[in-house]
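Q: How would the structure tokens look for this protein?
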Amino acid sequence: MRARLERYFQFAELGANWRTEILAGFTTFVTMAYIIFVNPSILHDAGMPASAVTAATCIASALGCLLMGALARYPIALAPGMGLNAYFAYTVVGGMGVPWQVALGAVFVSGIVFLLLTAVGIRQLILEAIPRELYSAVAVGIGLFIALIGFRNSGIIEPNSATLLSLGNLSHPKTLLAIFGLLAISALMVRGVRAAMLIGILATALLGVFTGLVAWAPQPYSPTDLGATFMKLELGRTLELGLLEIVFVFLFVDMFDNIGTLVAVGTRAGLFDRDGRIPRVNRILTADALASTAGALCGTSTVVSYIESAAGVVAGGRTGITAIVCGLLFGISVFIAPLFGVIPAQATAPALIIVGAMMLTHTADIDWHNPVTAIPAFLTLTAIPLTFSIANGLAFGFTAYTLLRVLSGDWRKVNWLVYLLTALFILRFFYLGKS
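A: Here is the predicted structure in token form.
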């Protein structure tokens, strides 16, 4: 049985082993476990029962990870997406006055559209149409994005109205805790410890508990609370013309955030074939779409591929076993969710900073001497962290790449779908500029 599993997950071809894959799964889970508590707190602001959303978050994440690992065989974890949950709660429900049950219907419809686009090959065409020159830029941009989140969560940098960002209070106890974690992970990596990320995160969390910096206060919770949101979506009103815009936003942002994550993690893990294509891409996209529809049925916002998956890849994860382990841990969390509240942001933030540093190695793959490549790459890798959006980074890169190809006289080298997507991106910028 073990030998058959190793053949199925291509252990020999990818140089994988069970110990590393399991540790990578734990690392990915610990790095993104915050979503179990952050997602319910955001959707609670939309009037949804927090305990029900907690259960829905765990179940949807578990299903997404298991599908990705078993079906697509990639070390990519899925969970309700940050950003899309805020759009769901504060724009759709809070700003537009749409009941959360109807908003869940919009998430479900977008998932069904995902499945249809995948079935007819449209999503695959979009993925393959992305200029190869932008692949490394997306990976670097997401690395900077991850690092920025890590620096912010650690308290090392903080918002500043005059300079946008500034140095935080490095003498604050919680910031010092994050700095300890950064040093601990770095030291372990220098010593060649493969479980450096996981050990560093857990050691930092334990230090926080022992020093009183982390307060563990479990909230009343039961998995049966899921009944308050399960199958509560309303599809009738979702199909009204005014709500199609909401469906499109869920569809658009999820599609390009997922593509960006896939490109970044695939580049880092060396998962592309010799022609630069991603094997089994149809299964990847199917797993993503099924997870989103299941999430809507359970009672949570759109499920997406998580860039924190890069933490598991940096820890050595190369196969679907990494995602399966992460999924099993999310499944266990349905019953013991409050326990994971002990892992503070200061413990996971150092891991995000280190992952960001590791992903900057892809700058060497960019031809900085060619303006047609360098300018779109630069716009992509800077726009992602500065706008807090992978989709915006892709939009800037796509648009600049197409325009520069045309201006240089190489317009015939541009895929027709790239022209179409560029036009859509320009329309999107125009729409966002007016809103």
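The chain has 20 helices and four strands.

The mean pLDDT is 82.

Upvote if useful.
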